[in-house]
Specification:
There is one protein chain. The protein is of the alpha/beta class. About 40% of the residues lie in helices and about 15% in strands. It has 15 helices and 17 strands. The strands form 3 sheets. The chain has an 8-stranded mixed sheet with strand order 4-3-2-5-1-6-7-8, sandwiched between helices. The protein has a 6-stranded mixed sheet with strand order 12-13-17-14-15-16, with helices on both faces. Helix 1 packs across helix 4, helix 3 crosses helix 10 and helix 4 crosses helix 5. It catalyses: (6S)-5,6,7,8-tetrahydrofolyl-(gamma-L-Glu)(n) + L-glutamate + ATP = (6S)-5,6,7,8-tetrahydrofolyl-(gamma-L-Glu)(n+1) + ADP + phosphate + H(+). Its EC number is 6.3.2.17. Belongs to the folylpolyglutamate synthase family. InterPro entries: Folylpolyglutamate_synth, Folylpolyglutamate_synth_CS, Mur-like_cat_sf, Mur_ligase_C, Mur_ligase_C_dom_sf, Mur_ligase_cen.
């Protein structure tokens, strides 16, 4: 088996695996010797911002001297991005060995695990094999029934809540928040990002039922906001710089820092400042030449992107290159984004849930924005001129990111837009 075949096998289980609460994951991990118990972990849920928060927490733990594991989803360009140790992708040899161990374990299970259950088990197995001393784990979908919820972490974090995955999590913010709060554990500190009072009432009830000490991360004081970085001050922590663009990242930074303080990990203030400054999270307000890549795949993400564009590029000619999944409220996203762009290029990606480019383009035409449809990301990129924002689906962001890196003109493009 080579690495490509191993990854193909993982993806193939999407169609054969059977979701069975957390029992499949528990059974699979037990067969692997319960690797998730070999290291302390930080568990992070939320609708938007949990990946950025995870990146900041991992970076800070690494600069504080811990050997870190980071498990996130989805990936942009290659599967190995989901599983990292000390910032490095899981090696192909380790991925193959892990898949072989999981295949052997699966032969003794009553139910076939799903793709995400296998990926989670692979991450936990590799973290143990690599000898990590702190793991940072992002929930996939929801929290309560997400297969990562087999963890008993040292701290549980919840980032911003928004309307997403309503078929599975509920049709109100309060219902979704309740599902996310399902990661709370008895006697494990829980930290949530400051949100509406209605959502905090949900978090407080969940924490009380679970016996989890609850605290709220408050927004920090902005000191300087640029299109590429931010400086802020947070009481009891001091001043920090982050290079994750967007004013919303300040709240994620507060969540990360407050979560680290509640975790019990030994932390050095100077190392924390360095870790926050060095944190990176590709595909989220990431500049590649004159292209801005952002995984704004739902209305909440679209509002964050719009706020960033209005703050830094209001009145400037911008083109939107977009592709979306049908189940991600594309009409609501178009309503938010349309006023920021003078032109739209709609395309698709190789996913069964992808919206047809022509139908997506029509949503913007209905709002008075000139829009064209391109069947593939390659054809869409060929039409893109000037300053271009790529947003709507992380699958699209990953595809365009790969094309930009492979393009013949890439070496002549500067790291930031002019």
């Amino acid at each position: 088996m080579n690495c490509e075949e191993a990854v193909q096998w993982i993806h193939a289980q999407r169609y054969t695996g059977h979701k069975n609460g957390l029992e499949n994951t528990r059974a699979l991990l037990k067969a692997l010797g319960n690797p998730e118990r070999a290291y302390p972990s930080v568990h992070i849920a939320g609708t938007n911002g949990k990946g950025s928060t995870a990146a900041m927490v991992e970076s800070c733990l690494r600069t504080c001297g811990y050997k870190t594991g980071l498990y996130t989803s989805p990936y942009l360009e290659k599967y190995q991005e989901r599983i990292r140790v000390n910032g490095n992708l899981i090696p192909e040899k380790a991925l193959i060995e892990g898949v072989e161990a999981i295949q052997a374990a699966c032969r003794h299970l009553q139910n076939r695990p799903t793709t995400f259950e296998i990926g989670t088990a692979l991450a936990f197995w590799y973290f143990r094999e690599a000898g990590v001393t702190a793991a940072v784990v992002e929930c996939g979908l929801g929290g309560r029934c997400d297969c990562t919820n087999v963890l008993t972490p040292v701290v549980s974090l919840i980032a911003a809540i928004g309307m997403d995955h309503m078929l599975y999590l509920g049709d109100t913010l309060e219902k979704i928040a309740w599902e996310k709060a399902g990661i709370f554990k008895p006697h494990v500190p829980a930290v949530v990002a400051r949100q509406s009072e209605e959502l905090h009432a949900v978090f407080a009830r969940a924490a009380l039922e679970k016996g989890a000490p609850l605290s709220v991360a408050e927004p920090p004081l902005p000191l300087e906001i640029t299109p590429y970085s931010s400086r802020f001050s947070l009481p009891e922590f001091g001043e920090f710089e982050i290079r994750l663009p967007g004013r919303h990242q300040l709240m994620n930074a507060s969540l990360a820092l407050n979560g680290l303080r509640a975790s019990g990990f030994a932390l050095d203030p100077a190392a924390l400042r360095r870790g926050m400054r060095e944190a990176a999270w590709p595909g989220r307000l990431e500049w590649m030449g004159n292209f801005l890549l952002d995984g704004a795949h739902n209305p909440q993400g679209a509002r964050m992107l719009r706020a960033y564009l209005d703050e830094h590029f209001s009145g400037q000619p911008l083109t939107l290159l977009t592709g979306m999944m049908r189940d991600k409220q594309p009409e609501a996203c178009a309503e938010v984004l349309s006023g920021a762009f003078c032109r739209v290029i709609a395309t698709s990606v190789s996913e069964p849930r992808a919206m047809e480019p022509e139908a997506l383009a029509q949503l913007y035409r209905d709002r008075g924005i000139p829009a064209v449809a391109a069947p593939t990301p390659e054809q869409a990129l060929a039409l893109a001129k000037g300053r271009v924002v790529v947003a709507g689906s992380l699958y699209l962001v990953g595809a365009i990111r790969s094309l930009l890196k492979e393009g013949a003109e890439w070496n002549s493009i500067t790291c930031r837009c002019s």
